Each structure stands twice: as structure tokens, then as C-alpha cells.
């Protein structure tokens, strides 16, 4: 009789652990809201006549800093009507609270595109792009540009494409979230089994 009570209690413990793990998995779900861009510098659709130097995208929440080259990137490319648009800047990106930034000098006149990617507050990557027009005033120095996406710390012209931002709307595979939920289940199960064994040993 006591053994049956212990078994029933054990089943309740395991079910409770499963519910807790499910709740943890739900709360960690990538379905939570991502960061949204609220301000661009240079502004989207703007006509820029002087070298902007700094390019910045500000979002509505803090961005997660995983270190240089980890989940964040920013590329400046153009002109759009060129046979082969070039990339500008050194590929180095910094985070400042809700903002992602990089520096670059632009080349020939035309429409330029800023593509960026970062890890939002919910742990999910978010990437977008926007455009502006570059019409340099007289006397503005023009940069040569690079055929390959620049990689921070590497010489211009590198063919290493690992630092290229993901296509807009890119997401992290659900495997990370599934692994976290599985780990929670394993941990909860281990705690439950430990409790069962202790209670069984105490039962005559």
C-alpha cells in the first residue's frame, strides 16, 4: 500500500516536472517579440551630401552583446545601379544599448543599402535593410570600396563571407530552444528520481 502511494506521488512529481519544463520551453520560445528598428542614421530614403562616417540603427529595446562577430553584422553596399555594387567600411560593428553601429566612407554617387543583423532582447536574431541616396557635394573624398563583404580585423578584399549579414528575416534554428527545453526536462527528471529513491529507502 505504501509502495503504491510512493509510486503515485512519484508520478505526480514527474508530471509536475514536465509541466515546469514545458512552461520554461514556452517562456523561452522565439515567438516573443523581436526588436524593431525605430531610427536610422543616415535616415531611410535620405539624400546624403557629406560623408556620414558613422552608420547607426537604433531599435526599441536593448540588443544582446555576444561579442564581436557573434550574431551581429552591418554592411554598407552600393551604388545599386553599378554592375557590381561594392562594400564599404572595415566590417567592425559595435553595440550601444539598443543601437548597432559601424563606420564607413562611401564611394561613387548612387543608392546605397545598409544591411544589419543583431540579437534582439528575446535572444532571437533580427536582420533588416534600408536604403538612402549618396550625392556627394564638391570636395568630398570618395572611398574605393571592396568586392567582398569586409571582415573586422582582416584586410579589405577578403573573400571570407562568414561575416555577411543574414538575409532580412533570418532566424536562429529552433534546435537551441529545443535543447534548452530538453535540458530542463532531464534536470527535472533527475531531481524527481532522487526524491523517489530517498522516499523509497525510508519506506519499510
Structure in words:
With 204 residues, the protein is of the alpha+beta class. The chain has two domains: 2-29 and 176-202, no CATH class; 37-171, Immunoglobulin-like. It has helices at residues 2-27, 175-202, and strands at 37-41, 47-48, 53-59, 73-78, 86-88, 94-96, 99-104, 110-119, 125-134. The strands form two sheets. The chain has a five-stranded mixed beta sheet with strand order 2-9-8-4-5, with no helix packed on it. The longest helix is centred in the C-terminal third of the chain and has 28 residues, at 175-202. 23% of the residues are buried. Residues 3-31 and 157-196 have low confidence and may be disordered.
Write the layout of secondary structure elements.
Blueprint: H1 2-27, E1 37-41, E2 47-48, E3 53-59, E4 73-78, E5 86-88, E6 94-96, E7 99-104, E8 110-119, E9 125-134, H2 175-202
Parallel strand pairs: 2-9
Antiparallel strand pairs: 1-3, 3-7, 4-5, 4-8, 6-7, 8-9
Amino acid at each position: 500500500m505504501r509502495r503504491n502511494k510512493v509510486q503515485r506521488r512519484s508520478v505526480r512529481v514527474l508530471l509536475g516536472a514536465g509541466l515546469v519544463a514545458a512552461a520554461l520551453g514556452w517562456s523561452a520560445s522565439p515567438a516573443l517579440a523581436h526588436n524593431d528598428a525605430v531610427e536610422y542614421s543616415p535616415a531611410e530614403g535620405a539624400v546624403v551630401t557629406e560623408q556620414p562616417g558613422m552608420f547607426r540603427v537604433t531599435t526599441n529595446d536593448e540588443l544582446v552583446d555576444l561579442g564581436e562577430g557573434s550574431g551581429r553584422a552591418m554592411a554598407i553596399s552600393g551604388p545599386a545601379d553599378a554592375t557590381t555594387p561594392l562594400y564599404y567600411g572595415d566590417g567592425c560593428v559595435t553595440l550601444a544599448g539598443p543601437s548597432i553601429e559601424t563606420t564607413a566612407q562611401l564611394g561613387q554617387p548612387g543608392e546605397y543599402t545598409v544591411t544589419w543583423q543583431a540579437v534582439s532582447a528575446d535572444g532571437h536574431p533580427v536582420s533588416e535593410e534600408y536604403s538612402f541616396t549618396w550625392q556627394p557635394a564638391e570636395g568630398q573624398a570618395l572611398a574605393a570600396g571592396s568586392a567582398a563583404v569586409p571582415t573586422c580585423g582582416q584586410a579589405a578584399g577578403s573573400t571570407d563571407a562568414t561575416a555577411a549579414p543574414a538575409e532580412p528575416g533570418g532566424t536562429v534554428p529552433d534546435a537551441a530552444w529545443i535543447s534548452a527545453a530538453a535540458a530542463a526536462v532531464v534536470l527535472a527528471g533527475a531531481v524527481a528520481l532522487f526524491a523517489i529513491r530517498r522516499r523509497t529507502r525510508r519506506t519499510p
